[in-house]
Write a structure and sequence with these properties.
It contains 14 helices and 16 strands. It has helices at 15-34, 48-54, 60-64, 84-93, 138-154, 170-186, 193-197, 212-219, 230-245, 290-293, 308-315, 335-347, 361-371, 402-408; strands spanning 38-39, 45-47, 68-70, 76-79, 103-112, 124-133, 160-166, 251-252, 264-272, 280-286, 301-307, 327-331, 352-354, 375-380, 383-388, 393-397. The longest helix is centred in the N-terminal third of the chain and has 20 residues, at 15-34. The strands form three sheets. The protein has an eight-stranded mixed sheet, with helices on both faces. Strands 13-12-14-15-16 form a five-stranded mixed sheet, with helices on both faces. With 409 residues, the protein is an alpha+beta fold. α1 (15-34) packs antiparallel against α5 (138-154) and α5 (138-154) packs parallel to α9. It is elongated, with a radius of gyration of 27 Å. Bound molecules: adenosine monophosphate (AMP). Residues 82, 113, 115, 120-122, 125, 127, 280-283, 305-307, 309-310 line the site of adenosine monophosphate (AMP).
Length: 409
């Protein structure tokens, strides 16, 4: 072995880890498709400009977390750091505004961010996400939030907490940003250096700081939730009311800011006590201005993304879900007959395997035990001995009767 290992912050998905992932994917597919969401997958890389414009130049993602490269022809491409901007790009590119609105989409894809790797934070990670585009009805906000809660519950994520907030409309937020920036400048000497440097670039991010002095300053900062205009306030009140009607518990968090510029109005985040420092399981919000920023007509939208690895961590270790083998086909000479039997068995929907490692017949039977095979077919000239391992019985059959016999059991 040359000593080459996977890059820092990346991971292999080994066969024993594939089962829980597949179960999560199946749960997501079932739940989301039943609610009218259809699968979409976009390319792993896009024009860098899509994220610069869509996610926002002032965000951490665009400032320092993107894997960008030249396509060889002078054009900058970027491995996708998130899914919303690409899905909105696809919505526009394929004229989905002509479909009945809202268009409901979901994805299950990997994303790339040049972050400092730690438990639950990787440089390539997977997200399941939804985007519902073309309606500003607050019932859609409540729908997507309830769906994420249902998914987390269904896959057994423990200790979840839901926080919601409103980031208002762009005009209100711009006025609030100025008010907040003025407040931060007035308290600049007590702020952490990295917060102070970003006062004018992105003052809202000051709410994310872990620095105790900064947090003390932020406790007295003006709150955007107190500045909502009448229609934003009504939208937010309706979302809360609908969540109440769905019986979903939440906390209103006036300091909930998300590290992406496109959000408007509703934002939300699910955390789990079962996780350590990286407690965010999934979150999202409205992005009523995003499609316009990407060159389309004014089109509202809302979505969320949840980290697959975080969900699996927060759901704890499930029992390994290896498919049990229905039939193991052993043989000494009749490889062709054994092979034909396995092919027939698989075509009939059975989980079947044959000997492939040159074991003695005794070794093959031991291997069948190890696999937990329900039946072992020992293919011999003229006939097959079929053992029911559970019952401890054995019968002799014509080779072409074996599959029907096992299928019927
Ligand atoms: P975001 O797209 O930043 O809103 O993140 C949505 C969710 O994706 C988070 O709540 C995490 O569960 C997950 N996530 C984000 N960044 C990472 C990362 N670097 N590694 C693993 N999961 C991540």
């Amino acid at each position: 072995m040359s000593g080459i290992t996977a890059p820092r912050g990346t991971f292999d998905i080994l066969p024993e880890q594939a089962g829980p992932r597949a179960a999560l994917e199946a749960a997501a597919r079932e739940l989301l498709e039943a609610a009218g969401y259809a699968r979409i997958e976009t390319p792993a890389f896009e024009a860098t400009e899509l994220f610069a414009r869509g996610v926002g130049e002032s965000t951490d993602i665009v400032q320092k977390e993107m894997y960008s490269f030249d396509d060889g022809g002078g054009r900058s491409l970027t491995l996708r750091p998130e899914g919303t901007a690409p899905v909105c790009r696809a919505y526009l590119q394929h004229g989905m505004h002509k479909l009945p609105q809202p268009v409901r989409l979901y994805y299950l894809s990997s994303f790339f961010r040049a972050e400092r790797p730690q438990q639950g934070r990787y440089r390539e990670f997977w997200q399941v996400g939804v985007e519902a585009i073309g309606s500003e009805d607050p019932a859609l906000d409540a729908e997507v939030i309830v769906l994420l809660a249902a998914l987390l519950r269904r896959v057994g994520v423990r200790g979840t907490r839901l926080r919601i907030g409103s980031l208002a409309s762009p005009g209100t937020r711009a006025a609030y940003r100025d008010e907040l920036a003025a407040y931060l400048h007035a308290h600049a000497e007590r702020l952490a250096a990295n917060v102070r440097e970003r006062i004018d670039l992105n003052p809202l991010r000051a709410f994310d700081s872990d620095d105790p002095d900064t947090r003390a300053v932020m406790a007295g900062a003006p709150r955007l939730l107190d500045r909502l205009d009448a229609s934003d306030a009504e939208h937010f009140a309706t979302v809360r009311d609908l969540l109440d009607r769905a019986g979903l518990a939440y906390e209103v968090d006036p300091r909930l800011v998300r590290g992406i510029d496109y959000y408007t109005r509703t934002v939300f985040e699910f955390t789990s006590d079962a996780l350590g420092a990286q407690s965010g399981v999934g979150g999202g919000g409205r992005y009523d201005g995003l499609i316009e920023v990407l060159g389309g007509p004014p089109t509202p939208g809302i979505g969320w993304a949840a980290g697959v690895e975080r969900i699996l961590l927060a759901a704890g270790e499930p029992a390994p879900s290896v498919r049990p083998v229905d039939l193991f086909v052993a043989y000494e000479e009749r490889r062709g007959d054994a092979f034909a039997t396995v092919v027939e068995a698989r075509a009939a929907g059975l989980a079947a395997e044959m000997e492939l490692a040159g074991r003695t017949l005794k070794g093959q039977l031991k291997h069948a035990d190890r696999l937990g095979a329900r039946y072992v077919a020992i293919v011999e000239p003229g006939a097959v001995r079929l053992r029911d391992r559970g019952a401890g019985t054995e019968e002799s059959l014509e080779r072409d009767a074996v599959v029907a016999r096992v299928s019927a059991s």
